[in-house]
User: What shape does this take?
Amino acid sequence: MYQSNLRLFGVSAHETTAGVWLSIGDCDSLPIVASPAEKGELVLRLLAGSKQGVEHPVDWEYLPRSPILGAVGVKSWSALKRITQGCGVDWSQEGYQITPWRSLGPRSMDEGIEAGKVHLPPGASALEIGRALVWAFMACDPLPGDTPKAEKPSKPKKQMRKTKRAQK
Assistant: This one.
């Protein structure tokens, strides 16, 4: 799941036969002001669209581009990371785990923020999942432009020199 200043984006991931997860499934988004229940429903839809056992790519050059990039309006993962926050959502028999990510730079993998991780039971409702997602995004690094810029010290005003014109 990725969050910009205006929208929440998600993409279904597919696990290959070699155990690699690829973000090449269905993509969907909501306005950032959507309710927690709507956000939870989006997560559940995307998780339902995830697949396992997809053939592992032989040639990575021909791997389809992730639809999340087009949905956000960027051409690369590094551009996506510059304008969004990210959270991973995992589901297993033990329940849901939502992990906020910390960006380690545009060309690096993200790192999970352990202190912000949220665990939910298997039967969690869409509302509970949406609330947990909102909470996890709050643990992410701030989006660019969300942090207040330090005020520049004001320059002393120049004093007017008295000239012959000013004296007249």
About this structure: Residues 147-153 have pLDDT under 50 and may be disordered. The two ends are 70 Å apart (CA to CA). The chain has one domain: 2-142.
